[in-house]
Amino acid sequence: MISPKDRFLTVYGRKPVLEALDDAALEVDKVILADTVRGPNAAEIQRAAKAAGVPVQRASAHRVKVLAGNGKQDQGVLADVVAPRMRSLHAALSDGRPPSRVLLLDGITTPANVGMILRTATAAGLDGVVVPRRGVAALDPMVVKASAGVAFRAPVLRCGSAREAAEILTEAGYGIYALGASARSSVFDVELPQRAAFVLGGETNGVGAEVGELVTEWVSIPMPGEVESLNVSAAAAVLSFELVRRAKAAGTTR
């Protein structure tokens, strides 16, 4: 059975929900409205949902807060938006054509960074970005906003944790490459196997020890200038388009 978390991106708050309903390119599965939301706000959302042919369900305010999973102001409304390229990591690896190059996020907790990484990886045509459900910023409206809406169609692969993902990928024959500022090997020179996963670590602590134990090789981005490190989303961009360059040089599409 496919988990809803592997099919939908949940957006919450009046404005994000109305924007999703108004976007003809998006498929909204349902809207859930707290029974405490009444009057003009409720009417506006119900009109927009009806115009888009989307069912509206009523639930308790507590239930909406739990489903939104944000701990912030959800304004009593959320929408489940279909993410057509999002699936579980297991499903992706069971495919007849499993991804050859994936990014694995480990401990990246800033929504802006997650959103920008999704945008960059999608632009670069990468096969997948593994976004664990634990230890990484939730795929919420802040991530969607940072991705400029690309998160809805990004090739997101879900699993429980970064460690779990690294184990699954290792068992499936992937080389695990982690970005680290002090690594001697360069992302521009390292030889890669047919299948490779690249770990991007958290903003403060980098790649965690649990994932580090499974790393095949550490790689760095050469920086001749007087800067110690790049923001993780900038590092992801450098890596993603180095993979584009390699694919182009090899005459492949990825």
From TrEMBL:
The keyword Ribosomal protein does not apply. GO terms for cellular component: cytosol. Transmembrane segments: none annotated. Gene3D superfamilies: 3.30.1330.30, 3.40.1280.10. CDD domains: SpoU-like_rRNA-MTase. Residues 10-87 form the RNA 2-O ribose methyltransferase substrate binding domain. Keywords: Methyltransferase, Transferase. GO terms for molecular function: RNA binding; RNA methyltransferase activity. One of its GO terms (biological process) is RNA processing. Belongs to the class IV-like SAM-binding methyltransferase superfamily. RNA methyltransferase TrmH family. This is RNA methyltransferase, TrmH family. It comes from Amycolatopsis keratiniphila. The lineage of its organism: Bacteria, Bacillati, Actinomycetota, Actinomycetes, Pseudonocardiales.
